[in-house]
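ASSEMBLY PREDICTION REQUEST
Request ID: AP-0331
Submitted by: J.K., bench scientist
Number of chains: two
Total residues: 432
Priority: normal
Notes: Please return the full assembly, not individual chains.
Input sequences:
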Amino acid sequence: MSWSAGSSAIWGQVHNDSGEKTGRRILIAENNTANSILLLRTLESLNHQVVIASNGQQALAEFGALSFDLIFIDMESPEMDAFATIQTIRDREKAEGGHVPIIGMTEHPSSGDRELCLSRGTDGYSAKPVSLEEIETFLCAVAISEPVPLWRRPILWDRAKALERLEGDEELLREVVSIFLEGKPKMLAQMEQALLDQTPKTLELAAHGLKGELAYLGVVEACETARQLEGMGKKQELDNAKVLVARLRIQLSQVDGIMRQI
Amino acid sequence: MKLLIAEDDPFFRRILEQLLGSEFEISTAVDGNVAWTMLQENDGPRLAVLDWVMPGMTGPEVCRLVRTPPRLASAYLILLTDKNRAADITAGLRAGADDYLTKPFDPGELRARVGMARRIVELQADLATQVLALEDALQREKSIRWATIVRVQARTPDYRVLTAYVFQIF
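STATUS: Completed
Returned structure:
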């Protein structure tokens, strides 16, 4: 199979017309040939660099060797052992910092798949085959992690500010952070459901609630995304909301990792 | 002093409760309707922090009801809002709020504003007590005068004398 020449992996197109290196570096962790080729070709046509790993071990080896902007992982095959693989990735990130967005995929979607994936450390879910629209949504959502030098990146979580707002009460900070972390999945789920049901008011209210908490906690970037979503709900313009909800989910996963360390 | 916190978000409920809990006897409501019920209770709180966006009635809707006759005259209401535009704030005050705080609020400002509210509620309570005492004194005065009339009437059954006496004392 030419697409897995030599090693487990293959590089996709890395040059655009001007010869410059563009696009994202994406890992497809998947051993269903047809599906990975389809995803590979689609991503390549969008000028992204793609690496394929056909089992969990290879995926971890690639993850260790390169930094990725996005990972698609098959949640079903036993060789992939996705839950353990994701857990290992997240554990390494906990030690070394960073957060790569992971999208879980299943072939025969059942109603609980999405929630199961999200509860096991993924940032998004898609039924196979991943549609072009979904790919674009995920990529737009990832676009926030533009390669900005570290010193210019805004602080993900201004913990000092949050502590100041609680009059230096560490115990209270721990308590409200856990209230926030506990309520967050529900609010995200409400927003996603609002997009499915086309109920802008629900989106507005859920985004409003999250925005208030994020502002208080000093989570600036995610707060801005929530603010935009609230505005879209208010104006009943849901066209671009999907990308922003996906982005918010990724931003919140990044913050989640940091918050759980306290 | 009793303080009502009406806030649907457990996150902010906890923060407000913790920041103000040492100074007030706090009760909480998770939506506007519950808040309205609690404010109407006989011995209910006279001071309330109301979130703007809540299920059921919103903060400004509760304010409007409180100010609608027969009003809960002495209730002091602080709206909690993240609407920072002058028009929104005016709308909140027009609805009957006495004051407002914008999220994310500074704990110092929260304490200061709630402290001011407490002084006003206490002043009003003092005034009400004094008015009651005055009314009571007046009432006693009146009954003494009636007693006098009855005594005069017993001594002089002449109605002209009595009428003159009544005109003189009232």
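REVIEWER COMMENTS: The two ends of chain B are 42 Å apart (CA to CA).
SIGN-OFF: pending second reviewer
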